[in-house]
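Structure ticket #2291
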Amino acid sequence: MEMTRYEHLSPSDQYQGISAPPLEKPFPRDGHFIPLPDPDTLQVPPLDLRDAIEGRRSIRHYTREPLSLEDLSYLLWCTQGIVQVQDPYYTMRNVPSAGGRHSFETYILANRVAGVKPGLYRYLAFSHRLLEVDTRPGITDKVMAACLGQAFVRASAVTFLWACVVYRMAWRYAERAWRLVHIDAGHVGQNLYLAAAQVGCGACAIGAFDDQQAADVLGIDGVDEFVIYCAAVGKKEDR
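Resolution: structure written out below.
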């Protein structure tokens, strides 16, 4: 924390005229993609904001009911959906981020989503679709193990894993980025709680995970890109 104070910061790469990193991590163009329902077409029940905030709880027990693809589309849209792009400098999304840098890549473990093969997927925010990452048997157990064996990961309909490409933030803010990305994670997690309540789900954020195991599951290095936050979601038992 001391070395992220402004008096200790190095000149940022943006200040030095170095080109900005891409706003989305590259992906294989020949991958298997799942288009998600257009956010403009999604119909969700009304929910009073005060009721949602006062009723917010971390929910670890879920029914066996699957999420619909519309539910998942809405949750992804509310947590990382893009509403404006100013390439290469920033995106405006449905959550705030320092300088609009949005350094996160969203991965999901889909256990029960209607029409989606169980497995690990990456959300491509710029095209609002999923990219299949790993649908081999045992992937759920690997994600649960990375989350220190917490059983509600296996019981969830979907577990979100947010990976941070830290240079996307550090390009502009140098060492201060190490503070800012954790603040951004809080914004994303709170939006997930609120959006989940609107579609009859409970959510539970997860800060307890093995960093390297989680990185290995996602196929990232754990240094330049690392898991910063996770959260399980499923239909609530007491609806």
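Closing remark: The chain has seven helices and nine strands.
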